[in-house]
Structures are given as C-alpha cells and as structure tokens.
Amino acid sequence: FQYAELMISLPKNWPLTPEAQGEKRHAWPINWLRRIARHPFEHQTWLGGKTCVIANGEPPKPLAPNTKLSCLWLLAETGPLGRARLPNGHQVVVYAIYPLYTE
Fold first, then answer.
1. Residues 45-102 pLDDT 10s
2. Contact residues for 75 (Cβ-Cβ < 8 A; gap 6+)
3. Comparing 80 with 14, which gets the higher pLDDT?
C-alpha cells in the first residue's frame, strides 16, 4: 500500500468545469480527492490498508453545504482495476472512494 491512486464515481451530469469547481456544492468531490492524496505526505503516514473511513471532523460535519454526506470510505479495489504493476516493480493500489452519511 506504499503507492496508491484514488478514484470516485460521479454522475454523468456532475459539473466539472472550472466555473463549477469554484462552487463548494460542485467542488467537494475533487477537493476531497486532493485532500486525501496530500494527507500521507503532510503527515508522514499512509491511507490505512485495505479500507479506511475518513470523517469530516469529530463529530462529522457535512462534506459540502448541499449534502448530508459527512464521511468517506476508502476501499482498495479488487480485481483487474485494483492493482497495477509499474515497470520498476512497484505495485499501485487503487482506492475507490464512497461518500457516507454519519448514520
């Protein structure tokens, strides 16, 4: 789990234009991808193995003003999409991110 990539599935009509990404209600998935990607480097740690849950505070607060989703579940993918071997021999693990409600 030393090398990882993150992915999140969004609806086809999710606005990803630069203008839309300037709005919190549209930008939160990409902002959280960036935040999670930086976390291991900023804190000299790793994402936590096959699965982990990241809460937006304690107690968890909504991820954006237009949603009650408050946590993110990172799950290491299995199957052909789950791992990639680089030419130098390193293995990259792909984490799928699933937004969750606190409940």
1. 877 678 889 999 999 999 999 999 999 999 988 877 788 888 999 988 899 999 999 9
2. 50, 51, 95, 96, 98
3. 14
Please name the residue ranges forming H helices in the chain. Answer: 24-43
- Global pTM reads 0.84
State the CB neighbour count (10 A cutoff) for residue 60: 17
d(CA 78, CA 103): 26
**How many whole angstroms separate alpha carbon 8 and alpha carbon 58?**
23
Contact indicator for 55, 71 with CB cutoff of 8 Å: yes
Q: Which residue has the tokens 């993110």?
A: 72
Nearest to 70 by CA among 57, 86, 81: 57
Residue 80 gets the label, from left (phi > 0), alpha (psi -120 to 50) or beta, of alpha
Encoding tokens for residue 102? 């606190």
Residues in the chain: 103
